[in-house]
């Protein structure tokens, strides 16, 4: 699952589609107003409901956020979430933060493909980690 900032990484996803770039089909892009609006609950819910990995992608650099501080909020949240995930037995590599500009559709494709490869190596998230039973 990928939460993409409307202004930059989401626009890069649209450009990737228009450019007919193919990326891993099991990545589900979700456009959000800003990476800083990705609540930690959304990430946790994604894992509980079957996501084996989550990407949060914001504007090109932390200082380029259209909402001024959104990228900084996203950075802090992802940093803390990675620490919490490891406390619950979930590999921190299953959560990734990226900065992608609107014109970097090739970078978006590369990030998606690399992340998918990482998740394949890690394997599926165990049911008992999700809070369910086997």
Structure description:
There is one protein chain. It contains five helices and four strands; from the N terminus they run E-H-E-H-E-H-E-H-H. With 134 residues, the protein is of the alpha/beta class. The protein has one domain (2-128). A four-stranded parallel beta sheet has the order 2-1-3-4, sandwiched between helices. Helix 1 (9-18) links the parallel strand 1 (2-5) and strand 2. Helix 1 packs across helix 4 (105-122). The longest helix has 18 residues, at 70-87. The model has no long low-confidence stretch (mean pLDDT 93).
Quickly list its features.
single chain; 134 residues; alpha/beta; four-stranded parallel beta sheet; 5 helices; 4 strands
Topology:
Layout: E1 2-5, H1 9-18, E2 29-32, H2 40-48, E3 54-58, H3 70-87, E4 95-99, H4 105-122, H5 127-130
Parallel strand pairs: 1-2, 1-3, 3-4
Question: β content, as a range?
Answer: 5-15%
What coarse outline follows from CA principal-axis ratios? Answer: globular
Tally the structural domains.
1
Which percent range fits the helix content?
Answer: 40-55%
| Number of strand elements | 4
The value of Rg in angstroms is 14 Å
SSE succession: EHEHEHEHH
In short:
The protein is of the alpha/beta class.
């Amino acid at each position: 699952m990928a939460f993409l900032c409307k202004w930059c990484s989401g626009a890069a996803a649209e450009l990737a589609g228009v450019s007919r770039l193919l990326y891993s089909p099991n990545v589900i892009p979700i456009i959000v107003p800003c990476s800083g609006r990705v609540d930690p609950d959304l990430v946790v819910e994604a894992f509980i409901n079957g996501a084996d990995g989550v990407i949060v992608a914001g504007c090109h650099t932390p200082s380029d956020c259209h909402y001024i501080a959104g990228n900084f909020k996203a950075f802090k949240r992802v940093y803390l979430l990675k620490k919490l995930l490891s406390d619950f037995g979930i590999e921190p590599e299953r959560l990734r933060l990226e900065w992608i500009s609107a014109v970097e559709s090739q970078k978006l494709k590369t990030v998606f493909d690399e992340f998918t490869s990482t998740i394949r190596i890690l394997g599926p998230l165990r049911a008992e980690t999700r809070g369910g039973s086997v």
